[in-house]
Amino acid sequence: MRSVRRLGLLAGTALVAIALAGCGVKSEPTGAGAAFPSQAVDAAGQTVTLAAPPLRIVSFDAGATAILHDLGLRAETVTATAASLSSDAADPSTALVIVPANLEPAVLQALAETTTVPIYHYGADPLTSAPTTITQLGLVVGKGPEAAVIAKTVAAGLATLAAQLATEQPVRVLLEGRGFTAYGPTNPASLAVAAAGGTNVVTVDQPLNLAAALGLDVTAWVSLQPGGSTLTSLQGYPELAAVPAVKDGRIVPLPMTGFPIDAALPGALQALADDLHSAPVSAG
Fold it and tell me: Do 136 and 207 belong together in one domain?
């Protein structure tokens, strides 16, 4: 099963590249063939409209940035950091600001006070809605047909993964991060785990103690990075020796932020599913 999944990952990645190249996505000029004003619904359920092709887009979301690049808008896209977001958004030439759907309310409020341009929320919950997320982003920037090509490929990859997972039992998963904290289903990484066939064994974020960890009977221990445990550190607790995930060495590292919503999402989820179901991680 492991080799089949890896082959599917590579095939899916190649399909994305072929589809994008075949449509001339990267070489097509901004706004070519697009009708403005454009309109799309973002991840917050808000309708966002642009009157003209955006000449400067500020993106604070890695997945959105990747999709914009795939749509041929690399030159128009400014990748913001936490430190630069406000100043980038305030630039008079900025036409659209893209932020993660789970952006902290205080940061969002401060951003709204900085700029008068539309703020577009980008995200997918559950991750199976990623094709719609990609399509809507394409619509708002005037690249609907091109985005539809990417979305179709992502949908096919997610469908392939779902078919694979339908033949396997769900895996009991603990998501643990800095400070020996267990994370519930609202964490972005938990969305990735759910899409990869894992069942989160906790329902809310909570401190984790050794006795509680032993009683959860987890098959895969997802170590959220930065700050999550390693197999070596977990093996240092004799109390955890009976936990199936520790006993089998199935400690899976995963970014706290989960996976970007971009063309590579199906492959990333296939690799995670492979790790959750079969592949132990080496010590350290």
Answer: no
